[in-house]
Queue: 2 jobs
Job 1
Amino acid sequence: MAVDVRLACARVDRKELPFTNDQAHLVTPGDVITTDTGFMRGHGTYMEDEKLHASVSGTVERVNKLICVKPLKTRYNGEVGDVVVARVIEVGQRRWKVDTNSRLDSVLMLSSVNLPGGELRRRSEEDERMMRDYLQEGDLISAEVQSVFSDGSLSLHTRSLKYGKLGQGILLKVSPSLVKRRKTHFHNLPCGASIILGNNGYVWIAPILNEDTENTGGFIQNLEPVAAVDREAMARLRNCVLALAEHKMMLFDTSVLYAYEESTKYTVKDLLKPEIMDEVVELTRQRLEAEG
Amino acid sequence: MAGLELLSDQGFRIDGRRPHELRRIQCRMGVFGQAEGSAYVEQGNTKVLAAVYGPHEIRGSRGKMQPDKVLINCQYSMATFSTGERKRRPRGDRKSQEMTKHLQQTFEAAVLTHLYPRSQIDIFVEVLQSDGGNYCASVNAATLAIIDAGIPMKDYVCACSASYIEDNPVVDINYLEESSGSAELIMAMLPKSEQIVLLQMNSRLHEDNLSKVMDMATQGCKDVHSILDTAVREHLTSSIALQDSSVT
């Protein structure tokens, strides 16, 4: 079997882009942004001696009187209405604790899930005892942010049939800032796989399910073996998303689809090689630029 | 130390520096994919890796949770191969525990802890090669890692050591100068406001010379700050260039 081996020194740093944005106002912690007192203090700033200082390194963003500094990478900051992919880490009293890549663990209340029976009904004690049968530790779910508590932790809900437990598929973790906010984050791509681009940077790739199994809220799991063609499409999609994320390209349905189409001339495993990643991403970028 | 000339007649130190010169500082940010923030700093022959995780839910004992601010958890360890003589325990010995506490205090003073109540930030520092000034290099590396993680801080924390050798204040001392028995002053400060977050003195120094040595260390911290700031800005511009070109 041929093995691809390369030396660490043969690696190239991706700094070849001679792109300088003069308008971007870069600051580092401790820098004075403005001495004018007429501005409002936003995220990433603090006030000292009547001066506005930056507290993180990044670009200054100004909306009317509000000044914020946006750092390159942070943990996920949840907002109401975001679609997230999350993992259950604890089953508690009438609630599940789930990990959403946020600063604190999020909660999913028993009262904010659709139980297998379907209709809205009162949650009985029976349901409380059965909680671990619905979702247990380690299960993955897709959900929507219902509210944000004062300490920044999130409350989720799955009261729609498109949310719920996730079955067979691949989970990918990317930076939350790379997921573009769209009207929909659930996509059935024509390449034979469905993808959920969670706002929290968790990406779920799964085979496309037919309508009737999809609308159970995911509580009835389909554990049938997935056909080899579908598995290959999913693996290819995974490598494409990974390549885009590594090049800090925004992730949304079109960019993922274009990357998939550009990658078809290579085998799936070749997509992990840096030079092929570079090429696929470059072709995707050109196609996106030609359109927009 | 007989026979070892720490400061020559021409005014050069044992490694060829002038008294006011720092060792060469090289740094890289974002060296780990898994951690939120990470950095690697070389200060002469002292090499340090730092990784920052969080803010995240409190792990381990929940009793440590603070309702009004974030818990900063540090771990300082020295690789077994980092010193001239092989170390037996990389962490957990008295010296490392002391260093851990110092790092924790330093960063509690600089990080805006009130922004993340009930959570925890982990700072892991590993000394890969030790040639004096381990604390200083660790603080500088951890600062870069925290900036890389996007955790809000009042200012950079820069640390620098200084000593007084043969009637001359010298800055950023290496292992030979450190072990020569002369006084050692370690200072960590917020360079913009010139606030001292940690000041430590080993062995004896005459009172009259203290201000000279402190001035030297202060100047050293500011020099370190300008080097770190350049590195951060470089990292920022290259990453933003990548991001901008992909926004369509």
Note: The radius of gyration of chain A is 22 Å.
Job 2
Amino acid sequence: MGVGVSTSYGRSYSDRAFATDYRMPMEFTAAANLDELLDVKAQQPDAQLLAGGTDLMVAVNLAHHRPEQIVSLGRVEELKDVGSARIGAGTTWARLEQCQYTALAQAARTVGSPQIRAAGTIGGNIGTASPAGDGLPWIAAADAEIIVESKERGERIVPWREFFTGVKRTSLASDEVITGVTIPDNLPDAQEFAKVGTRNAMVIATVSCVVMRGDDGFRVALGSVAPTPMRATRAEEMINAESTISDAVLEEFGRIVQDEVQPITDHRSTEAYRRHAAGVLARRLVKRTLQ
Amino acid sequence: MTTRTTTGVHSGIGTSVGRPDGEPKVTGNFAYASDLSADNMLWGATLRSPYAHARLVKLDIAPALAMAGVHAVLTQDDVPGEPRFGQEEQDQPVLCDGTAQYWGEPVAVVAAEDEETARLAAAAIVVEWEPLEPVVDPDAAVANGAAFREMKIRRGDEEAVGSIVVEGFYETAMQDQAPLGPEAGLAIPDGEGGLDLYITSQWIHVDHRQIIACLAMDPDQIRCHPAGIGGAFGSREDISVHIHVAMLSLATGRPVKMAYDRTESFVGHVKRHPARMWYRHEADDEGNLVKVTARLVLDGGGYAHTSRAVLANAAFFTVGAYRCDNVFVEAAVARTNNPPCGAMRGFGAVQTCFASEMQMDRLAEALDMDPLDLRRRNALAPGDAVATSGQIIEGSLPTIAAIDAVEAIPLPDLIEGDDPRLLPGGTGLTTPASSVVRGVGYAVGLKNLAFSEGFDDFAEARVVMTTSGVEVHTAAMEVGQGLVTVCQQIARTVLGTDRVAVVWDDTSQIGSAGSTSASRQTQMTGGAVHAAAVGLRDQIIAAHGGDELRDDGVYLKDERIATIDEVCVAGPVDCLVQFRHPETFPPDENGQGDVHAGFVVAAHRAVVDVDPELGLVRVVRVDTAQDVGTALNPQAITGQLEGGIMQGVGLAVMEQLVVKEGVILNPTFTDYLIPTFLDAPDVETRIIEEGDHWGPFGAKGIGESPTISSTPAIVAAINAATGQRLSKVPVLPGDIAGSG
Amino acid sequence: MNVTITLNGEARMFDVAGPESLLSVLRNDLDLPGTKDACEQGECGSCTVNMDGEALCSCLVMAVDADGSIVLTVEGLSSEGELHAVQDAMLKHGAVQCGFCTPGIVVAGSRLLESNPHPTEIEIREALSGNICRCTGYGAILRAFEDLAAEES
């Protein structure tokens, strides 16, 4: 026998009903710079970070999530740089659409809508750590690292595999702030992104994929097919052992990718289709990096 | 064609004059229901069932009532009058009466000082439920006798056989109208025990009837006023906030507003019935249809709403726009614990048009015949009998002309270059041009006009001549479609003046206009305005012994004999009309009879580019030829055709509510996908004007046609591109790619 | 928390206690209901405002975080009874039906023309792909913006 607004009502309504009071006072700090941001996080480790608002405000609006402490990093200019060694966490998708990293620019263009891209940031994508985060396969393919910083321990560079620990879970400590992403020295120029969705704009990825071709061979990363962004390691090993990329090799490569991903069936797609599409995308992107 | 020139009138019928509510809408000044407020206003909120099927064991409102700022908490025990409401059948309790029949059924309502307090108070109500097994399989429900309606159509010889037989099983998903304006309403006490209700509606008088019954009040104690409506598409045919907000206002003596958010909107209105349809078409060697046999099961969900009428439409359009002498249909709409379904644009005809047009393509394939030639060979024309009901078609029905016209539109070129926005998958960059195949598909759709089966269908309008211009009074709901413009145009043409304003009356000031549905208002309210304007004109001309009415007075042989001031010397002159369409009759036990008031036909051609390996589709073009009778406002017609097609695109390739054990898994705009600007095909339209036998100036209603046959045309095009025989909509990538 | 913004050319101050959105404040506290509330998750564009030169979903802007910014809503586009060119074009081409999406499209579209006065068809489509219209099928909206794009600057 259930009592109250049961969890089987599912998603939206149960969440909302137990939410805290909208009118409870909230502490809000608009950090002027990185030092102030780190100060606030040191004093208020539970404070939630507000960047573009494209995830946090959805939770506020729909789930009636009521954060008690907010620190906004919208005014922290140090976080908005795209350089040759790092991308600032506060860089918007609109800015990244124009960046020099081909596959990241391609991914940026598929994020939400123009309105979302003008607000949302890559740091938010990393912090939210959704399996479908559009920027995450690029980070995995680039073997980029997540730069985090706290007042107490200073800067910490975390390999992406250690940073993303599960569905919407990361190894970020409560007093830490994501400040950016490193750009590895050996980042291949030949890099391509693709994303499947059931609509041509404003769509959450059914599957996304980045393939890079560099001196060390092909790198293949995928999103929406596992709890975290993932590399198709076995498929990479297979294709990197081949001297020529024939159609037969690509077929086999695609099959391994299909096999290697760990997707689920949900209301957006099925496990079977996600496996299939992962293989097709990876195969097509290998071809694109060879063009 | 009717002459459309009236002396001195520039914005009468046949012109693409703009809408009178256009400027407030582009400047943000148009007041939608959700924008309304009143002094001293309270906010309402609704507690809903967390289960698709559950017994209400205990309901304790005390914790909510104890909260500061809470003024009322009401349950079914507080309903003063009839405990249940419903448009056709009064079967849904105002608030849950012991057993919740669907996920999200309203259980209690709260009024509080602000929106947040109301929401928190609703959450503070303690409810104890005993979950019951939900009935979610419509076939099983029908087998167990749980149906809102079952009907049979038996026409002709059951023993008839054709030499060519094709069979198929088809499914259409639960589609949501998803109007952009969520449900909202405001109730204001009148100080004398009654209320003024500002609500959204498609038929404000039928809402009024249900509201006063449940409140046990006299008709004149409750006045329903139309509030600005942000789209409808069938979703506002049934009651949402209406009775709740009125009860809260009566209980508190204060104005109360309720406004749903998007998720509550998805839960709080009826949707398009999902359908399962088995078909057998039999034809002779020449392609003449010999017999059609079908079994249709629609899922009506928890309560009846308009399910009975939707089922009739589905059944009567089983065969579509074709002749066939032998037709046998068994149809049922199931009562389950799924989300309740009711009206959505196309109203049952969408589902069977999809199935029957897929069948026609399969039949053409079996006959090795051009699909359009097969359709032309069997096309319904005036004087023919409708395949299902046997009703002889009066008026116009240009089926072959529509097919010819859409076929004659030049086909678009193949996409050149590699702009991803023009390829399947769009900016997702999934698909190189080399992976694309193109397909072209056609479909034809038939729809009835206005209400059927013997319903006493009428619309009332009053046209008033004043010294400052003409007023058209109506209670017909303007939901965005442009009725307001058409009413003006009709009155202008008849009365010889451009100075016409449409005034929306409340339910106490004018009689019913009937529903803004069934493609009916241009003909019904338009017909009433036309008749009232003609009556007014003739009355004024006769009173002054003239032969013509113009903007500045009554004329005789081109000389003015009375000014408008003189015409109105004793005050405004008016004419009130109740307009009825040709009588219809209930079907007999075999589904036979003159059940419909008229018919409209359309043909669609879709051009799609498909990436078969990934199953991605870009709908490149959807062209249409539309039977309109007479075009009253060409620009508004184009808007209806393009907008209706887009909802057909949605059903064809993306739109569906995903329901599991009665629970909607995607009640948000993140996951209920509606076509965006980048998903929208180009549309080329051809308007066919052959006039009709009873609409004003020969006009027909065209609100639903564009949504009916656009969906099967797109699927036919995907089939043509891929060589597949797809049988359900929406067609999702996995369906094409063959990976589920 | 006191917040000051420049709203449609005027300095406006408001007070918020919690994380409510700019959309909520515009509609409920600043008496500007022209900006529409249709999904509250950035998936329909009905609440689009121009904030510091960008078209943004005001439902995703935390009101307190808007402090110091310049905000233009649909109400601020027309002045002294003179419609903005985008509003005129929308009316001329019959691009308004129910009108609930219209304020968002007008604001997003005016921002597009500021950054790109002569967009191509496909640029118009992409720039407005965050604005859902359920009535028109976008055809008339496209014709309105193609008309504007063809105008000499």
Note: The CA atoms of residues 92 and 121 of chain A lie 4 Å apart.
